[in-house]
Amino acid sequence: MTEGHARRVQTQFGTIAQAYVESAGHAGGEDLEMLVAWGRALRPRRVLDVATGGGHTALAFAGVAPRVVAYDLTEPMLAAARAFVSGRGARSVAFVAGDVEALPFRAEAFDVVTCRIAAHHFANPARAVRQIASVLRPGGSFLLQDILGHDDAAANAFILEVERRRDPSHVRSYRAAEWKAFLRAAGLTIMDEAVVAKTRPWEDWTGRTRMTPTAKNALEEFVRATPEATRRAFEFVLDGERVRSFADRMILIRADRD
């Protein structure tokens, strides 16, 4: 990750870490349940949770594996995750700060690596996936979840603008074909995949990043001015002048190291 992008990520999330700990959308749902079900079937001993954010995935996998490492670029986020996870009574989770593109772990150290709703912040996802593959043991599994890029160019451009106005550290969401190419190039074989919808209540979603009223109003105006057919790709719900919610499509992939 470039120094400039790393600073953007750390600036964006360093002051709002607790909001991600308290986020209901990150705390659970069908998506997290699916990742945990995949993980439980693998019976791992050591799990690495990359870009742990508020620590919800690390906490969930603490009930699956005897050892979990929660890893994140932003130290205030890591501190908030540590307080959250330890407050829930999990004692088997270690916390390490660092960049996903330069993992500080020995080769083949983990049975499972997880990464949930974070890869759209990666400056170089192909390099990140290669790093993840390098710390997986042969036969180990990478469990990935992220916002799914849209195959329609206009829809993709629209949601990218929405995301970046709300969060300047957002790089972009990748299409299924792109993820499959990243994984194959890193020597990973896709074993399972799914797509699930995740509803985003607008006030919660924009409030979590502490958008200013001016920026939020401008974003809402942009959404309202976008053709309805484009908005419909993300299930935007408008109530007069108000945006109520929209839905992300999430891609979930289990890919095993060859």
Outline the structure in words.
By secondary structure, this protein is of the alpha/beta class. It has a single domain (3-200, 247-257), classed as Rossmann fold (3-Layer(aba) Sandwich), CATH 3.40.50. It has helices at residues 3-14, 17-21, 24-27, 30-42, 56-62, 75-87, 125-135, 153-166, 176-185, 202-208, 213-225, 228-232; strands spanning 46-50, 67-72, 93-97, 110-116, 136-147, 188-201, 237-239, 242-257. Strands 1, 2, 3, 4, 5, 6, 7 and 8 form an eight-stranded mixed beta sheet that branches. Helix 8 (153-166) runs antiparallel to helix 11 (213-225).
Q: How much of the residues is beta strand, in percent?
A: 25-35%
CATH topology tier name: Rossmann fold
Gross CATH architecture: 3-Layer(aba) Sandwich
Helix amount = 40-55%
CATH class: Alpha Beta
What's the CATH H-level superfamily name?
A: Vaccinia Virus protein VP39
Number of domains: 1
Specify Rg, calculated over alpha carbons.
18 Å
Order of helices and strands: HHHHEHEHEEHEHHEHHHEE
Q: What is the number of strand segments?
A: 8
**Main sheet overview:** 8 strands, mixed
The total of helices stands at 12
Class by helix and strand content?
alpha/beta
Task: Calculate the mean pLDDT score and round it.
Answer: 94
Distance between the termini: 26 Å
Unreliable segments of 5+ consecutive residues: none
Summarize it.
By secondary structure, the chain is of the alpha/beta class. It has helices at residues 3-14, 17-21, 24-27, 30-42, 56-62, 75-87, 125-135, 153-166, 176-185, 202-208, 213-225, 228-232; strands at 46-50, 67-72, 93-97, 110-116, 136-147, 188-201, 237-239, 242-257.
